[in-house]
What we know:
The protein is of the alpha+beta class. It has two domains: 1-38; 41-206, Immunoglobulin-like (Sandwich), CATH 2.60.40. It is built from two helices and 14 strands, in the order αβββββββββββαβββ. Strands 6, 7, 8, 9, 12, 13 and 14 form a seven-stranded antiparallel β-sheet that branches. Strands 1, 2, 5, 10 and 11 form a five-stranded antiparallel β-sheet that branches. A two-stranded antiparallel ribbon has the order 3-4. A hairpin with a 7-residue loop joins strand 13 (184-195) and strand 14 (203-206). The longest helix is centred in the first third of the chain and has 34 residues, at 5-38. The protein is elongated.
Amino acid sequence: MPSDPSTGSSVASSLQSVLTFLSGALTALFAEPIRQWLFRPNLILSFDNDDECISHTFHTSRTPAETGPKAVYIRVRVANTRKRMARDCRGYLVNLEAKNEKGKFVKTEYCDSIMLHWSCQRPETKYLPIHIPKGVNQFLDIVSIEENKNYFRPETHVILNRYHELLRRTGVFRFTIHVVADNAEPKTIKLIFEWNGDWKNFKIHKDS
């Protein structure tokens, strides 16, 4: 018995409707996440031997008429190259290595990932995440050195007791800094810091 052509046409029409519905549902489900991924912010970390990244200032402010000891803050520039805001940016010191007698960087006792603080923030907010729009440079403090002190200080949220001896050593050190944002790809930069205990004669440059 020959099949009814109208039945096949009805099945094809129903199948087409189902496929159209599924295509629309999938598009609605995945379109926004794909758009967010394609147009997410792009963080750029940079360091230059200039007054922006090597800031000569005072370590603490006491009163308007009296300032604290002279100090140098070494900072990393953090920028966002895209229109979408980079939200809740945080920076961490994830590694601190030292160069050995063979000229190779090796692990030290530093084994934590401790949050670094943002420059030009109030004491109560400098460790909080910040938003970075396009075209605005923010600076992350990495390490400071102070006159009449023979040690360097990572600008981390805490300085653990077990690292005090490490910070009083001289030599060549490599800092690894990791910066993250809620809606951007994490970025990493490494700085090489040559320290002989004299706060005026240190050297610092980006690891190539």
